[in-house]
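Provenance

Sequences were taken from public entries as deposited. Structures were produced by running a predictor on each sequence independently, with no templates supplied. The record for BHLH domain-containing protein from Rhizoclosmatium globosum is shown for reference.
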Amino acid sequence: MVKNESPLNTKATAASARVQEPFLGPESPTPRTVNHKKSDQRRREALKTSFSRLLAVIPQASPLASPTTVAAHSASPPSLADDDDDDADEMPDGSKAPNRVETMQLTIKYIHSLKEKNDGMDNRINQLRRELDLLRSAASQRGL
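Predicted structure for BHLH domain-containing protein:
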């Protein structure tokens, strides 16, 4: 058996052939890697923008927020073109903004408070309707 024909040498030449192929490391990323990085960056930016908008409408995080601003902001979906806030880690007063977990907890708390307020208003509406019905029936009995 000739040395060059041994199975070990065949493996060695295959390994050396692989080493001689162009290196596809950080210096020359593949188009798929580039597209993935761009896509992931867009996703992260969209999340950052969404959390910034969410912080802007939560009263605990923003003293200017109110239920009317919640409706106004929820009507327009977040887009990367609207990202004017380069420094999303700071609040308007210069304090540090809550992290994402805190933002979600504040949002849940705010939604619960809005639901309680809404339920209270529904109860008040029902009470006023009953009162109006009583007044109408009393007026009709008097012939008014």
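The mean pLDDT is 75.
The helical segments are 7-20, 31-57, 67-75, 100-141.
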